[in-house]
Each structure stands twice: as structure tokens, then as C-alpha cells.
Specification:
By secondary structure, the chain is mainly alpha-helical. 57% of the residues lie in helices and 1% in strands. The chain has 25 helices and two strands. Strands 1-2 form a two-stranded antiparallel sheet. Strand 1 and strand 2 form a beta hairpin. Helix 9 packs across helix 11. The radius of gyration is 36 Å and the shape is elongated. The N terminus is likely disordered.
Length: 595
């Protein structure tokens, strides 16, 4: 029957029905949504919907491989549908025997052997069957290791044998995480995490408090992040189905990443092997750890309700770490700091800096711990320095970071290459913010205005159209620098510009003793729009400051589109002479044809 109880007693799905029934009747109406996984497990045990779908997917892959090998002339034996069906039926029968009586525990070995066979459908069925068997055993407490001496030596020996077989099963699931087919990887992940749920609940009931089986989860994380065969589908499933949905899995994922990235981590500790730790973490780990961590969007807060994969026992007294916001913040910080200490590729380095101020800094336990990483990035130069500006600015304004010689290094970044980089708009947006304070000395603002004007002479139109409004805003915000556009030289024929362009010290570059003669040159720019914009400096400063955002996204394409789409008021005057011959007199071609 649907409840799992029939006229022959309990069937193989009865343990799943008990889990669902206990969850449903012990929860409030609002919290009954947490019982959905238990309900799905029970329905899957009854009808095998997911198992059938996965088996069909594997069969499709098997047929495709058979067709490919046949076309290549490679021998490839494919099991007949009749043998396939009989093996699957055999697995279901063995599973029912194991769940019905402990006297049939030896059938687990046969199911495990089928799970290792080359028959894809039978192996897949056997893997799922073993998952249901071990789930029931965790529920009954048969796999739990107890510290109390057992009076029955035979029961102790059976328990040890079951734990050894369970270990072999989890090793099989971990090897399936590196399978070449993405659906098999996802199936192995789901089964492995389901086993963690049963293990955690069993350990929690025995301890009377919340217990997270992190040894099992660490193996999952280590395998997924270090395997070159890990598919995007597997990573997406890990993030969407687990890390973004359950607080305890996310907390221990961050802790495990920090542990795996540590130089003191021994991958063979407590596994009966000697340490073989490599000197450096693999590039695969760095790339896949960043791929997962950058996609985690959920952040635990004290005001939010916790969502746990391993249910917390009701009788537990102390509050576990998984429901403490401070523990989540500390784990988040340790994971990101550990990742940043590893050798990063240029692409990952830039992506971290791009998202630093929005996704990392606000959730750090101590944001100042990022100072070394951001300072080193800022001093690197080039595009990396531009990207580090946002994070440094956040630390300076919100966390009272005192960064020495900040404006000198910012001045050094302002060269002709800045008009051609991908992050040009981002840089000028920040530059206006940095120079917007009214407490800055006049010589400093004058140095930036002079450098911008000089660079605008050689910049492309899109760069000049950004520099001119920024200079206008600087002069408008700092009236003491207006002397730069009013100073007249005594002798125009022999005057020299006192501005020292190569001087890194802003106080010694003599910008305040110079003038913005470059703006007058820009009034004769070949592009009329830039010339018109530069003529604003010859007029009284009555206009408000420009919205720099309106000038940051211009390119040759936008200029061309704007000019070609403009309607002329009068048609241009054209004096054309209609041709009266194939070539005109005086052309080189006419002389050649005359000869």
C-alpha cells in the first residue's frame, strides 16, 4: 500500500515513509515545505521515476558509444535488452531481500558487484539500490559506530562489516564524480549528499545535538574541485541545489575550501596512507573553487531563518555554528583569503577585483584583511591597478584605511593607455569621485587637470570627449585652480611651459604655475563636437557641472551613428562638373592612352 504497510508486513519503502510521516506531523504548517525531500525519497522508492529517467539517459549514451565504435570498426559488446532486464529485476529482488531481513545482508556484496559491472543500466540501478539500502541502515542505526562496548561480538563484527561495505560504496560514488558523462556525475553527487543527510541525522540522534558529517562532505568537495573531468552541469547543481539553498552545506563548503587551500593540508590524513602533499595547489582547484564561490549568492544573516540540509534535533540544547551569523562570516572570510593566497591566473585575478567591492568586502569579518591583496594589486600597474581602485576606495571610505601616497599612484596610472583599456569608464568614474573632495590642495587638483588636458591632445575622440567635461568639473569644484585658464604669458613667442610632465611628485610638477593652453588647441580639433565642447572654457563658467556618465560610453561607432543619423538643415553646396569623356585631360592614365 502507499503507506508502505501491506498484507505481508512492511515493504522496502517503509523506512522512507516513516521519515516523511515523522517530518510532516512534527512540523508546523509553514515548515512542512522542509519535508519535500523526504516525500520525494519515498515516491522515488515506490515508482523509480528519477531512476528510470537516468537509466534511459545512460542507455542513450551507451547506444551512441556503440554506434561510434561500430563506425570506427572497434569491437564493442552491448548487452541485450533481455539480459539487461533480468539483471535489473535481480537487483530489485536482492534489495527487497536485504531490507526485509538482516539475514540477507550478504546480498549487498552481489549488488555492489553489479554496480561495478559494464552493464550501464544494471550498474545504475544497483547504485541507486545501494543508496536506498544504506539510507535505511542509517535510519535504523546499523552503521553508527558506538563507543560503548557491545556485548554481542557477532553484532559488532556485522556492524564493522557493514561500515566497510558502506565505505566502498561511498568510494564508488566519489569515483563516479569523475565520470566522463555529466548526468552520472550529478547522480553520484545527489546520492552522496543524500547519504550525508542520513548519516548526519543518525549521528545527531545518538549525540543529542547537531552533527554535520564533514568528513564525507570534505571528500565530495575535494573530488569535485580537483577533478579535471568535473562538468559545468555538476558545478551548477552543487551551487543551485545545495550551496545556495542550505546554510550548513554552504558554511562547511567555505571551511573545506580554506582547508584544501592551506599549505598544511594533508589529503591522506586518517586514510591509512602516507602524506603525499604537493607543493602547490592545482590550477584546476583554483579555477573550479572560484567558479563555485563566485556563483554563491545567498548570504546568511542573523535576521534570516536558517535552512539546514542536516535537520537539527529538537532536544539539542546548545546552538550550533550553522545558525550563527558570525560563524558564516568567518568561514566566508577564511575561504576567500585562502583562495587569494594561491597563484591566480590573470583572468581570475581580474574577476576577483571586479566583484571585490560588492560581493566580498561587505561580508568579510575584517575587511582590512584584504589590504595586502588590494595594495599589491594597486601597485602592479596596468588594468589590474585600475580594477583594484574600487576595493581600495571602499576600504578607505567605509573602513578607515589609511593608504599612503594614494594620489601619487593614482596620478601615475593616468597615462595615454588609460583611454584605450576596457575599464576606461570605470576608471574615470572613480577618478571624479576621488578628486571631488573640497579638502584637496589646489596643486594636486591642478596636476590632474593639467595631465588630463595634455593627454586629451593625443587621445582618440572618445577619450577627449571624456577628459574635457572632467576638467570642467574640476575647475568648477575648485575655484582656486581657475588661474590655469586665465594666466597669460608675457612673451608668447619665447614662453615655455613650466609643467614637468615626467615628475611623479604632484607638488613639484609645477602644474599650478602652468596654464591649460591645451584646451585652446582642442578648440581647433578636427572633430567639430570636441571643438565645440572645448570652447566652453572661453566662456563664463555659468553652466552647472557636467554629468560625466553621459560621456563615458562614447566610441567611434556611437560618433558615426550620431553623425550619420543627423539631419542637415541645408543641403551642402556642391560644385560638380559632369564627365564628358572616359578620362580627364592631365591624368596619368590619359597620357598613357595617348601614347
Amino acid at each position: 500500500m502507499a503507506s508502505g504497510i501491506g498484507y505481508r508486513g512492511t515493504n522496502r519503502c517503509f523506512p522512507f515513509w516513516e521519515d516523511f510521516q515523522q517530518c510532516y506531523f512534527s512540523s508546523t504548517e509553514k515548515a512542512r515545505a522542509d519535508c519535500v525531500p523526504a516525500r520525494d525519497d519515498y515516491l522515488e522508492c515506490l515508482h523509480h521515476f528519477k531512476e528510470i529517467a537516468r537509466v534511459r539517459a545512460i542507455q542513450t549514451v551507451e547506444r551512441n558509444n556503440y554506434a561510434k565504435n561500430k563506425a570506427n570498426g572497434t569491437d564493442h559488446k552491448i548487452i541485450s535488452a533481455k539480459d539487461d532486464k533480468s539483471t535489473v529485476e535481480r537487483v530489485h529482488k536482492l534489495e527487497a531481500n536485504v531490507l526485509s531481513s538482516h539475514q540477507n545482508l550478504n546480498d549487498i556484496v552481489e549488488i555492489y558487484n553489479i554496480a561495478q559491472s559494464t552493464n550501464a543500466e544494471a550498474a545504475f540501478t544497483a547504485v541507486n539500490s545501494l543508496g536506498r539500502i544504506y539510507s535505511a541502515m542509517w535510519t535504523k542505526g546499523l552503521l553508527k559506530r558506538t563507543k560503548q562496548p557491545q556485548q554481542d561480538a557477532a553484532a559488532a563484527k556485522v556492524g564493522e562489516w557493514l561500515r566497510d561495505n558502506y565505505r566502498q560504496y561511498t568510494d564508488l560514488l566519489r569515483s563516479m564524480l569523475g565520470h566522463q558523462e555529466a548526468p552520472i556525475q550529478v547522480t553520484a553527487l545527489r546520492l552522496h549528499v543524500q547519504m550525508m543527510d542520513k548519516e548526519g541525522q543518525a549521528l545527531g540522534r545518538a549525540a543529542g545535538s547537531y552533527v554535520f558529517p564533514n568528513d564525507s562532505f570534505l571528500e565530495i568537495v575535494e573530488t569535485v574541485l580537483n577533478s579535471d573531468a568535473t562538468s559545468e552541469h555538476l558545478l551548477r547543481t552543487l551551487v543551485d541545489s545545495y550551496l545556495n539553498s542550505y546554510d550548513d552545506l554552504r558554511l562547511y563548503f567555505y571551511r573545506n575550501v580554506a582547508k584544501l587551500a592551506s599549505p598544511d593540508y594533508d589529503p591522506f590524513k586518517n586514510r591509512g596512507k602516507k602524506s603525499a602533499r604537493k607543493d602547490t595547489v592545482s590550477d584546476t582547484f583554483v579555477q573550479q573553487a572560484f567558479a563555485v564561490m563566485s556563483q554563491i549568492r545567498t548570504v546568511f544573516s542573523a535576521d534570516s531563518d536558517s535552512s539546514l540540509w542536516i535537520a537539527q534535533p529538537k532536544a539539542s540544547g546548545n546552538e550550533p555554528d550553522v545558525v550563527r551569523a558570525s560563524a558564516h562570516t568567518r568561514a566566508f572570510s577564511e575561504a576567500w583569503l585562502a583562495l587569494m593566497r594561491l597563484p591566480l591566473t590573470a583572468d581570475i585575478y581580474k574577476q576577483i577585483l571586479l566583484t571585490m567591492h560588492k560581493r566580498i568586502v561587505p561580508y568579510m569579518a575584517d575587511a582590512k584583511s584584504l589590504m595586502d591583496f588590494l595594495s599589491t594589486s594597486y601597485e602592479t600597474g596596468g588594468a589590474v591597478s585600475l580594477l583594484a581602485l574600487n576595493g581600495l576606495f571602499t576600504l578607505m571610505t567605509e573602513h578607515n584605511l589609511n593608504y599612503p601616497n594614494f594620489y601619487e599612484k593614482l596620478y601615475a596610472l593616468l597615462d595615454r593607455n588609460v583611454f584605450h583599456v576596457k575599464y576606461r569608464a570605470r576608471f574615470f568614474r572613480l577618478l571624479e569621485t576621488f578628486l571631488g573632495s573640497s579638502h584637496l590642495p589646489a596643486y594636486l587638483v591642478a596636476a590632474f587637470a593639467k595631465r588630463l588636458a595634455r593627454l586629451a591632445l593625443f587621445a582618440p575622440p572618445a577619450g577627449a570627449v571624456t577628459a574635457i567635461p572632467l576638467i570642467y568639473n574640476l575647475l568648477k569644484a575648485h575655484p582656486s585652480c581657475m588661474v590655469l585658464i586665465h594666466r597669460m604669458s608675457e612673451d608668447d613667442a619665447e614662453s615655455t611651459d613650466p609643467f614637468v610632465e615626467d615628475e611623479p611628485d604632484l607638488a613639484k610638477c609645477n602644474a599650478l604655475q602652468s596654464s591649460l593652453w591645451e584646451l585652446e588647441s582642442l578648440q581647433h580639433h578636427y572633430y567639430p563636437n570636441i571643438a565645440t565642447l572645448a570652447r566652453l572654457f572661453s566662456e563664463p563658467f555659468h553652466k552647472p557641472q557636467f554629468m560625466l556618465e553621459d560621456f563615458l560610453d562614447h566610441t567611434y561607432a556611437t560618433f558615426f551613428e550620431s553623425d550619420t543619423g543627423r539631419k542637415s538643415k541645408k543641403p551642402p553646396a556642391l560644385a560638380t562638373q559632369p564627365p564628358i569623356s572616359l578620362v580627364r585631360a592631365g591624368d596619368a592614365l590619359s597620357d598613357f592612352m595617348a601614347v
